[in-house]
Amino acid sequence: MIRSITQIKPLEEIERLLEGLGRVFIIGCGTCATLTQTGGSPEVEAMKGQLSEKGKVITGVTVVPVACDHLTGQILNDIATPLKQADALLVMSCAFGVQTIAHQMGKTVIPALNTLFIGRETGAGEFNESCNQCGTCVIGETGGICPVTACHKGLVNGPCGGTNNGKCEIDSDKDCAWTAIYNRLTQLGRLDSMRRYQKPRNHLGEPSPGKFRIPV
Predict the structure, then answer these.
(1) Rounded Cα–Cα distance for residues 66 and 49 (Å)
(2) Within this chain, do residues 164 and 90 fall inside the same structural domain, yes or no?
(3) Which residue in 9, 21, 59, 175 could disulfide with 87, CB within 3.0 to 4.6 Å?
(4) Which letter does DSSP use for residue 70 in this model?
(5) What is the dihedral of CA 6, 8, 13, 15, to 10 degrees?
(6) What is the pLDDT of residues 190-216, one digit of tens each?
(7) What's the Rg (C-alpha) of the chain?
(8) CA–CA distance from 15 to each of 90, 116, 152, 172 (Å)?
(9) How confident is the model at residue 73 (pLDDT cuts 50, 70, 90)?
């Protein structure tokens, strides 16, 4: 399952962002942030305790099902009173969720988390990046394995000279992405795909901020 992978900001940074904002309502997210243990009920309650010790008045807490959903505003309106009493909303979700709530609520919104990447759970408490949304997808040539995120060097033509017994030279605990690609293409009978040269990646990508419109 693909999720936005997040990390709780240092408390000192959160305090700085909340400077001058004495009354705070804390919002967690029941999907991605709950999975990564950065914005579920336990983390929201822990944040409430930490901020209370710092002298903040917590007007309320809640964990919405999906912070980035367009229905989140309606859910939050059901608890309008404690929300209105707050000077700021501290949101423990990915950046998309923070922006969604900011757009819907018309209140000062403070992010409590840093959004790291889009990834999937590969083990208990372990998450690996699956896609960095580069806009130049090559996995059709690599057996469905993304070399940009699976390879420490982001090589789209590999392997490099440092692979050793199927392991990465940068991280010996990590499987070499291009060994995995080789094995996958061998299984699929498409090993010739590795001989096809991939042009250098355009690291500029699309103009920023990104925008996409379906032609009519």
Answers:
(1) 23
(2) no
(3) 21
(4) T
(5) 130
(6) 899 898 898 887 766 555 566 556 566
(7) 22
(8) 11, 21, 34, 38
(9) confident
Kind of pairing between the strands at 57-64 and 2-8: unpaired
Q: CB atoms < 10 A from the CB of 64, how many?
A: 23
Q: Is the pLDDT of residue 2 over 90?
A: no
Instruction: Give dist(CA 96, CA 23) in Å, integer.
Output: 24
Average pLDDT over residues 98-103: 90
Write the pLDDT tens digit of every residue in 5-20. 999 999 999 999 999 9
- Token pair, residue 88, equals 């700021």
* Amino acid code (one letter) for 205: G
The span from the CA of 40 to the CA of 5, in Å, is 13
Count up the domains in the chain and report the number: 2
| Residue whose token pair is 């000192």 | 12
Q: Are residues 85 and 150 in the same domain?
A: no
On whether both 112 and 6 belong to a single domain, the answer is yes
With a CB cutoff of 8 Å and minimum separation 6, the contacts of 97 are: 29, 33, 66, 67, 68, 72, 91
The whole domain housing 152 covers: 132-195
